[in-house]
Amino acid sequence: MLTKRIIPCLDIKDGRTVKGTHFVNLRDAGDPVELGARYAEEGADELVFLDITATNEKRRTLGVLVDRIARQLNIPFTVGGGIAAVEDVRDLLELGADKISVNTAAFRRPALIQELAGEFGSQCVVVAIDAKRGADGEWYVHLNGGRTATDTRCADWACQAVEAGAGEVLLTSMDHDGAKQGFALDLTGRLAQMLPVPVIASGGGGQPAHFIEVLQAGADAALAASIFHFREIAIPDLKDHLQQHGLPVRR
Length: 251
Prior knowledge:
10 helices
């Protein structure tokens, strides 16, 4: 049985790790190089780095910072933010990234997913989806760090992205982000059942029970930020809880 993964996330703004609630009210959460090294030592399965203002500022990801973090890691490293071309990915892989995450640029031009998968392999391409529930109860895709709403249903875009070559889907519920009240179990379970690739659940993890719920609902991995940054939950303790509930984890 494949092990379930626990993935800390570094949201980066101006070279610092930040964290907010529902994508707003950002506060400083520490030095990303120090945090990355700590998570690798504590037994995180992977690390995600998201340059959250790169797309809106129309610039490329902070390569120097990616390089500094990668040098501290012995676990898979996913980097996203401002990626819009094959050349961007090649540069990040040379700096130490193992996988890349694309969001707005891929939605605007789905052929980008095909190009990246063709050049680097689907296992390298993670499509991140920021989803928010609409008044009709359906989940819709939001772009530009959650600032731009679309009328595209999350499930439809996820299927299209996978067909184009995405090897994983990183699903973030904007409604649950930072609230620490649990993940979006309905949407996560639905996508996990529909898609032939791993689904990473993000948004809402606040206590071990929340991780158990979303992984039992079908997620292959659970991603979180502030609870790890501020030492509210230690990764080894979380993995103990998962194992006690019959969920396979890497120790």
